[in-house]
Amino acid sequence: MITDTMDGDQLYKNQTRHSQLFMEKASTVMPGGVTANIKYFQPNPIVMQKANGAYLYDVDGNEYIDYLLSYGALMLGHGNKTIKGAIFEQMNNDGTLLFGTPHRHEIEMAHRIQSLYPSMKKLRYTNSGTEATLLALRLAKAYTQKDGLAKFEGHYHGGYDEVLVSVNPSLNQAGPREEPHSVLESKGMASSHTQTTVILPFNDLENCEKILRKKQKDIGALIIEPLQGGFIRAEQPFIEGLRKLTKELGIVFIFDEVKTGFRVALGGAQELYGIEPDLTTLGKVIGGGFPVGIVGGLDDIMDLSAPRQSADVFDPSQSQKSDAADVLFHSGTYNGHPTILAAGLATIDVLTKESSNVFKLTKELKEQLSHLFKTKSIPMKAVGEGSIFNIVLTNKKKILDYRELQSSDLYMRRKIDLRLMIEGIYTKPLNRYSLSTAHTEIEVEKTIAAFERVLDGL
């Protein structure tokens, strides 16, 4: 049994005093001192001042090897020169940051995406992964003419009401494993979402089938993180069974690859599984550090969003002839932003050459950590694929779903994470580890040494 010999929270506070002062000031102008709840953690977030490659530097002058990488978005690390060059080239050659019209970068990126994700026959750009999943659900509902959706317990698809259900429910509210309850995850949500958003048990095909067959007349979309949280893998028979079942029941099957796109394989989880979903959402990595989202899929589904002269919400002259509800509306001033697409194209160029090296280094780090924990007699599983993994403190042979993750030693994991920050290893407590092309053997060696010091100190 691991026991504390020092107060890790106090050590952490001593090292991040200027971050604490910053957060106190920030709280006077921003609720909780942050602009996104995900950026906050106890006892206080670390405020960063600069970054370079695989490293972050905070306002107290501390250096960290960054394994959060903006929640996996920065697969080329911080300040990548190729991305910077592509951005400056776009601005100089195009003479603008924003056209507000169709432009060549949109079709160039579309062809590159389709070469890696052949299921995306046609696509649309959005400004975030959240917007991408929102559009995907609207497309699915329009296509099936069914308003309900199904998602999995423990899966996250954005911060809006429809999908902010049973993401991290307490187990005393979650209901039976075989038919989980729909648990609202925020104030201000309509209680009706507990009826329209159906929750499914991950990696349990038999019970998923029972629920989907019972509610097939209502459910138009099934959205899934093919690897829950980016690291808990769907079993192959499970994902194949879902693909077959959704086709039979007339439910649009959506792969949310915002986390897994490019990270578990260059062609995402669908390359890993050999599965073609009806719709795919991408984000994070493909923006190269900028906000972006992409939705793509089957022609007949995507073509629902094509503008038609007879129904245009922006054309008042049409209002006497038709109803705007006759067309699926999707728009956004910054959709297909030329600077962001230039960064994304540069990211693909680099990853095409270097992603295999990132995957190899990630595997090496996972193996060394597994060996280290074993030598310290601490049960641990390094769970994940490609360039993402998470450290789960458990004796279980496999982690298959949210409930098994909840039964791991999350309390001790948080203590380890805080002490790793003191040792210069950064990820948000309890979060997954992501690697980039900027990480090398040097960072792996430093990380293993830091882990050893932390584990010896507990």
Give the C-alpha Rg: 23 Å
- Helix count from the secondary structure assignment: 15
Q: Could you give the count of β-strands?
A: 16
Secondary structural class: alpha/beta
Q: Tell me the helix content.
A: 25-40%
Walk me through what this model shows.
With 458 residues, the protein is α/β, with parallel strands linked by helices. It has helices spanning 8-15, 17-26, 69-72, 81-94, 104-116, 129-144, 193-196, 205-214, 236-249, 268-273, 299-302, 338-375, 402-406, 410-422, 441-457; strands spanning 48-52, 55-58, 63-66, 122-126, 148-152, 197-200, 219-224, 227-228, 232-233, 252-256, 279-283, 293-297, 381-383, 388-392, 425-426, 433-434. Helix 1 runs parallel beside helix 14, helix 4 packs antiparallel against helix 12 and helix 8 (205-214) packs parallel to helix 9 (236-249). The radius of gyration is 23 Å and the shape is globular. Its cofactor is pyridoxal 5'-phosphate.
List the helices and strands and how they pair.
Blueprint (H helix, E strand, L loop, with lengths): L7 H8 L1 H10 L21 E5 L2 E4 L4 E4 L2 H4 L8 H14 L9 H13 L5 E5 L2 H16 L3 E5 L40 H4 E4 L4 H10 L4 E6 L2 E2 L3 E2 L2 H14 L2 E5 L11 H6 L5 E5 L9 E5 L1 H4 L35 H38 L5 E3 L4 E5 L9 H5 L3 H13 L2 E2 L6 E2 L6 H17 L1
Parallel strand pairs: 3-15, 5-6, 5-7, 7-10, 10-11
Antiparallel strand pairs: 1-2, 2-3, 4-12, 8-9, 11-12, 13-14, 14-16
Helix pairs in contact: 1-14, 4-12, 5-12, 8-9, 12-15
Task: Give a short summary of the structure.
The chain is built from 15 helices and 16 strands. With 458 residues, it is of the alpha/beta class.
